[in-house]
Amino acid sequence: MRDKWIVSLEDYRLASRKHLPKMISDYLEGGALDETTMRANERQLKSLMLRQRSLVDVSAISTATSVLGHSLDLPLMVSPMGMLTIFHPGSDPAVARAAVKAGSIFIHSAWAGCSLEEVAKAAPNNLWAQIAFWKDPEETRKYVNRARSAGVETLVVAGDVGSSSKRERDLHHGLSMPPRPPVADYFDAATHPGWLWRWLTGRKMTYGNYDIDGRPLRMNEMNSWMAENKNTSATWEQFAKLRSEWTGKLVIKGIMDAEDAARAVDEGADGVFVSNHGGRQFDSQPATIDVLPSIVKAVDGRSEVYLDGGIRRGHDIAKAVALGARAALAGRPFAYALASGGEPAVERAFTIFRDELKGAMGFVGKTSVDALDDSIFVKNRAPALVSASAYGNER
Ligand SMILES: Cc1cc2nc3c(=O)[nH]c(=O)nc-3n(C[C@H](O)[C@H](O)[C@H](O)COP(=O)(O)O)c2cc1C
C-alpha cells in the first residue's frame, strides 16, 4: 500500500505484511494459545459506545497531559517491545526519535536489539526503560546502574514474565532467534527481498543490552541465556528492594488484578501499568480495558495508572483515559508503522492517533484530557463498566 493511502493504524498492519515475511509478521501480530485475550483487548475497547454531544464549542481542543511530571502532547506512549531490529534496521532509535517529535515517551525493552545507551542518545531525557529481575541480582543491579548513567528517570518492571508463553504461530514456523525458518519460510523470505537484503546486510542480529565473553549476545544464544538467567521465583520482595535502591520513578507493568495493583502501590510504585502483554503471554485472561475500572478503584489515586492492549484508534485512547488511565500505550501499531516505513511512518502513526483522538474528543464534547470521564460513554451500552465485576476483580 502506498504511504499516501495510509489513513489508519490498520492500514499500517496490512502494509507491514507486505514488508515482512509471514513468519516475522506472525511473530509480531500473534498472541498466546488461542489468542482469545489478544482479540478481546481490541473487541472490548470497540464495544464501548460513546455519547455524541451537540453544539459544544470544540474550536480549541488540547490533547496535552503529563505522566509522572513529564509533559506529553497526547496521552499515548510506546510500549516496550524487544526485537524491533527484525522489523526494520532503524529499530529502537527510530521509534524513540519519533516519540520525542510527537511529544511522547518510548519505553526501551530489556530485550531490544539496540543497547539502552544507544537509544538514550536518540531520546535524551525522554526515555523509560523496562527491566526484568534476573536470577543473579548482580545482573539486575548492573542494568539498573546503566539506566541511571544513561539518564533514565523511570524504570518499568516487567511483572508478567516469570512464566513462559506458548505462541503457536511461532512454533509452526519453527521461529528461533535469529529466524531459522523451515524451507517454505525461506521461499517466503525470498519473496520479500527488501527485508531479506536488510536482514542479511543490515545491523548485526544481537541483543544490544547483554554481553557474553565481552561481545554482544547473539540472537541464537538468547534461549540458553534466558534458561540460565530467567528468574522464575521473583516476588514482591525484589520489587521492594529495587524500590529502596532506585531513587527515580518506578512503574510495574503487567498488572491485571486489583489486589496486585494495591500491593504495588503499598510497595511504593509510582505507576501501575495495566497490561496483559497484548495477549502474548497468558491466554484466557480478560481484556485490559475490562479490568481497568477495578484497578483504578484499588489504586484510589495513590499512583498513576496506564493501560495497553488493543489501542488501535484515537478513540481507544479517549476510552482508556475516561476510565481512569493517565495515559494509554500501544505496541504493535508502532511496530507495524516501523516495518512499513521506518521513522517517518512512526511519526505518521502518532499523527493518526492524535487526529483521531482530537476528533473523538470533539464529538463527545470535551476539550481537554482532564475532562474525559465516564460521562462520555453511552451508559447502558458500556460492557467494560459492567464486566469488571463479572471477572471478580472488584475490590
Ligand atoms: C513484538 C513485541 C515484542 C514485545 N516485547 C516486549 C518486551 O520486551 N517487554 C515487555 O514488557 N513487553 C513486550 N511486549 C508487550 C508490549 O509491551 C505491550 O504490552 C503490548 O504490545 C500491548 O498490546 P498491543 O500490541 O495490542 O498494543 C512486546 C509486544 C510485541 C508485539
TrEMBL record:
Family: Belongs to the FMN-dependent alpha-hydroxy acid dehydrogenase family.
Ranges where the FMN hydroxy acid dehydrogenase domain occurs: 1-382
Keyword Thylakoid: no
Protein name, as recorded: Alpha-hydroxy acid oxidase
EC number(s) stated in the UniProt entry for this protein: 1.-.-.-
Species in which this protein is naturally found: Arthrobacter cryoconiti
The UniProt record lists the keyword Oxidoreductase: yes
Molecular function GO terms recorded: oxidoreductase activity
